Amino acid sequence: MSRKQKMHESIQADFETVLGAIADERKPPQGTLQARPFVKWVGGKRSIIPELLARMPKTYGTYHELFVGGAALFFAVQPKSAYLSDINFHLVMTFQAVRDDVAGLIRNLKIHESRHDKDYYYRSRTRLFREKDPVKIAALVIYLNKTCYNGLYRVNKSGGFNVPMGDYKDPLIVDEENLANCSRVLQGIEIVQHSFSQAKPKAGDFYYLDPPYHKTYTGYDGSGFGDKEHEDLAAFCGEITKAGGFFMLSNSNTDFVRSLYKPYRIDTVAASRSVSCKGEQRGKENEIIARNYD
Fold first, then answer.
1. What is the DSSP string of 86-135?
2. Residue 276 per-residue DSSP state
3. From the CB of residue 225, how many other CB atoms can be counted at a distance below 10 Å?
4. Is 286 helix (H, G, I), strand (E, B) or coil?
5. pLDDT (tens digit, 9 = 90+) per residue, 62-113?
6. Domains by residue range for the chain, with CATH
7. Contacts for 263-266 with beta carbons within 8 Å, 24 or more apart?
8. Beta carbons within 8 Å of 60's beta carbon, 6+ residues apart
9. Residues forming beta bridges with residue 148, ordered by sequence position
10. Percentage of the chain surpassing pLDDT 70?
11. How far apart are CA 136 and CA 5, in angstroms?
């Protein structure tokens, strides 16, 4: 074998070693379940999970997600100690039901699946805000989320769910394996309903903040999220920093948002947007990730 051939094989071996190391690094930790968001949510983070994971602090105490949405990052990280919250009552009830009674939830979802048609969808839509049973509420939320137009959760000023039915031939209403895995991941996790401002920052804890984006859709709970709320959130990030905690925040790439987080590290990333009433608004958009640590 010539010297040139030996050199080529050596370089190839080194390259394959590097590729192997990268592949191993990207494998889920041993014991990690294949769990993914069980609802589609406006501003979901599945398209930028690698970007978020690469920017998380190496060590921290409890994981906090205060705008839980679909919880894509939580399911990717699967922390043993976590605190999940959201202002949306029905969403929080759904997470609690997945954690506490996934078997009952699946039974109710199978009933919805067996009865699904246009009339049943619109009857179910009006039932959502009359239902009192937590598991039935969760089943309605998931059923409507899987069958409504583009998976969009939207309410009117009275708080009523008002999204029309989507045009799906065979929607996946009952994903038993994923729901069961999500339930296992959520065991021992605290899940509560409140606004971000009610959280108490703690030293060493990690806070991922994914609010309704500035100058984008904010109708998922009826309360709105305007400039004042974004300013309050930036002040809350200051409280996390003062307490000795770590925060990472996703938001729109606007001058207003950049001015709010000017004291911190800001990165720009491209994210896919698939939840929109207007088809032309779907696709890749730049957004920012701000954090108070390197």
1. ES-HHHHHHHHHHHH-HHHHHHHHHHHHHH-SHHHHHHHHHHTTT---HH
2. -
3. 22
4. strand
5. 999 999 999 999 999 999 999 999 999 999 999 999 999 999 999 999 999 9
6. 46-102+178-291 (3.40.50.150)
7. 264/237, 264/290, 264/291, 264/292, 265/290, 265/291, 265/292, 265/293, 265/294, 266/290
8. 204, 205, 206, 246
9. 165
10. 82
11. 67
Task: Write the CB contacts of 14 (distance below 8 Å, at least 6 apart in sequence).
Answer: none
192-209 in b/e form (b: 16+ CB < 10 A) is ebebbeebebeeebbbbb
Give the type of residue at 211. P
Query: Which of 213 and 14 is assigned the larger pLDDT?
Result: 213
Asked if residue 68 lies in contact with residue 95, where contact means CB atoms within 8 angstroms, the answer is yes
Question: What would the pLDDT profile of 182-212 be if each residue is shown by its tens digit?
Answer: 999 999 999 999 999 999 999 999 999 999 9
Task: Provide the 3-class DSSP secondary structure of residue 250.
Answer: strand
Evaluate whether 136 touches 127 at the Cβ level (below 8 Å): no
Rounded Cα gap, residues 3 and 216, in angstroms: 61
Binned at pLDDT 50, 70 and 90, residue 46 comes out as: confident
Amino acid at 246: F
Per-residue pLDDT reduced to its tens digit, 17-40: 433 443 344 444 545 789 999 998
Is the CB of residue 59 less than 8 Å from the CB of residue 293? no
> Mean pLDDT over residues 157-165, rounded?
82
